[in-house]
Specification:
mainly alpha, 93 residues
Length: 93
């Protein structure tokens, strides 16, 4: 499926891109190749293929949440250049 120059310009406008004539031509051929590749996938019989969110099986590798001792406020603010109560004091923007 070939994409037209107007379609390339429309997509560029949606993406707020300013394209030169050379870029429009180059992107037109690249987008056409992408649409052709997607079209080939669409021709496959995938009726027996189970939908997946990822091609590989993923396992949750997160560690269990466990309470641990943390730093005291004095330790946290030990190297702070300036402090006000339990906040870092910074100059106004």
């Amino acid at each position: 499926m070939a994409i037209t120059r107007d379609e390339v310009l429309h997509v560029a406008r949606l993406a707020r891109l300013a394209l030169t004539d050379e870029e429009v031509e180059r992107l037109g051929s690249q987008l056409s190749a992408i649409l052709e590749a997607v079209g080939k996938v669409a021709e496959l019989d995938l009726a027996d293929v189970e939908p997946t969110s990822h091609p590989l099986d993923l396992a949750n590798v997160s560690a269990d949440d466990e309470s641990r001792p943390s730093l005291s406020a004095d330790e946290v603010f030990a190297n702070a250049p300036d402090r006000e109560d339990d906040f870092f004091r910074v100059p106004p923007a």
